[in-house]
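Technical note accompanying the year-one report. For the benefit of new consortium partners, we illustrate the data format agreed upon in the data management plan: each record pairs a sequence with a structure-token string. No post-processing was applied to the example shown here.
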Amino acid sequence: MVPLSVVTTRKMNKTALAVNHAGQAVAATISFNLPPGVSLNQAMKTVDRVVAQTRLPASIQGDYAGNAAQLRNSANNQPLLIGGAVLGIYIILGILYESFVQPITVISTLPSAGVGAMLGLWVCGEEFSLMAMIGLLLLVGIVKKNAIMLIDFAIAAERSGLNAEDAIRQACIFRFRPIMMTTFAAAFGALPLVFGHGYGAELRLPLGITILGGLVVSQALTLYTTPVLYLVLDKLPFGREHIPSNTYGIKESAS
């Protein structure tokens, strides 16, 4: 028998119990915990800044995993999600109104809500995180109901014989209180998210700020911009396609 020492050299040393690989490359996992009051998005920006300052060699590359990777992927898909939501609303409203024009009047309330949401986040010093994105999608469904209530009433008034200007004026008068009631109800529902404390409060804060800021700004502008846009679109050659043809005869004979 040949002794093992003849063909090998023995030396005591320390090594890892397991070597992880990712894509056939040696990989190491570095975990971190979030301190109180710091969001995952803020922590990721801090990590990116530290990695850029470290100037690692080209052979060492880093990437996120777990919740951080999901957050980054969702951030990349945000424009697609918002565009899909707006397109879906336009299609549904177009089917309901049987018009290509009136859905534009409803969708016109969404930019003011987005501006209010971003302004609220900026004033409160919060970043546009995943929860803020969820709040923005919720605003798409909440804010458009103001314009829907106005336009539904105005269309019904036009079909009863009123002209467009009188119809939208009556809609603003008779739908003012329902619009204010529903807006205040949604705003008061967002207050616990803004002023809440305890575990997870910092996670819910951007959601409440987005909803509250979007509601305040959109409410202040909807009652002014929606009637104006309604009248502008009504004057277009294809803007009165939602009014039955027999209504024109009634109006012409009355004039």
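Partners are asked to follow this layout when depositing records. Residues 244-255 have pLDDT under 50 and may be disordered.
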